[in-house]
Amino acid sequence: TTKFNGVAYPIQKAAAAVVASAIDEEPHSGAADLARPHTLTDVGLGRRLAKRIRGRLTYIRERDSWSHWDGTRWAEKAEHIAQHHAKRMHDELWDELASLSHAERTPAVVKFVQDSGTRARITAAMWAAQSESGINTSQSDYDTHTWLLNVRNGVIDLRSGELVPHDPRLRITQ
After folding, report:
1. Which of 16, 19, 66, 117 is the most buried (most CB within 10 A)?
2. What is the distance between the alpha carbons of residues 116 and 72, in angstroms, rounded to a whole number?
3. Is 55 exposed, middle or buried (0-12, 13-18, 19+ CB in 10 A)?
4. Which of 119, 109, 172, 136 is nearest to 50 (CA)?
5. Which tens digits make up the pLDDT trace of 28-64?
6. Are 46 and 145 within 8 A, CB to CB?
C-alpha cells in the first residue's frame, strides 16, 4: 500500500518503484535508461540521442536541418548522420538489455528496445533531440567571427596572423 493525503491505497510493487524513481530523480535528466522505466519514452530517446551527439551534431532551427562537425567545420545536410546515431543508440539499447537481470527484462522494457529501432521511434528521437540544449542552434550562431579564416590546417585570425587549431565552438561553416 501507499499513502496519499493520509489515505492508504493498494499499489503494485513494480508500479510503486516506477513512481518512486520518477519522484526521487531529477526530471530533466531523463535520457532513456532501461533501469528507469519513466524514461522509456520518445522524449527519453531524444535526450539519450542528444547526449550521444552533443558536440558532434547540431540542429539549425531556421533551416530545419542538421549539421555535423567534420573536424574542420560545421557541415550542413547531416540528417543521415543523425539517423545513423539514432540507429547506433538502438544497438546500444540491445546491449544494455542483454546485461539486465531476468527480473529487470520486463515485457515493457523489451518492447521499448524493439520499438526503438523502428522508423517512427528513430524519427521521434531525432525530433525530440532537436530541442535539447547544445543541440538546438540558430543560424545566427554560425560564422560570426568575420576576422577568422578557416583553412585546411587550422583557423587563421586575420587580425593577428595567428594560426589556431580547428574548434567546433567557433561555429565556422566555411
Report:
1. 66
2. 32
3. exposed
4. 136
5. 457 888 888 888 999 999 999 999 999 999 999 999 9
6. no
